[in-house]
Specification:
The protein contains 3 helices and 4 strands. With 119 residues, the protein is an alpha+beta fold. A 4-stranded mixed beta sheet has the order 1-4-3-2.
């Protein structure tokens, strides 16, 4: 992709795609936090984990209050690249889906407000 070529090719050449996490994403939904924790442990046992981002932690909170864990793992087929695995509790997924229309409306209002030329 153009992103890989522009951002990573000068330093990485043929390995430039390994930095892209938007090529391979998946989500795993768990009944509760206990099962989510077990899922994280299984991922750590089975994959080469690069990073774990805990959006339950206060330092990772965003305006929407998203509660999930992202785990970045290396997938090898044949060239290694990064896969982003999102682990989420079912209750948070349902709440996010129910609120999505309202969030979209608010985002549209903000986009409209700030899309002018600044006058």
């Amino acid at each position: 992709t153009a992103k890989a070529f522009v951002r990573y090719a000068p330093a990485e050449n043929n390995h430039r795609y390994r930095h892209l996490t938007d090529l391979a994403r998946c989500a795993l939904i768990f009944v509760d936090a206990t099962m989510l924790r077990a899922g994280i442990e299984q991922i750590i046992e089975r994959f080469e984990v690069i990073d774990v981002r805990n959006y339950y932690h206060a330092s990772c909170q965003n305006l929407l209050g998203s509660k999930h864990v992202e785990v970045l793992v290396v997938i090898k087929c044949p060239e290694p690249f990064i896969c982003e695995i999102r682990l989420e509790e079912m209750s948070y997924m349902i709440a996010r889906e129910r609120a999505q229309k309202q969030v979209d409306k608010i985002a549209t209002v903000f986009a409209d407000m700030y899309s002018g030329n600044g006058a």
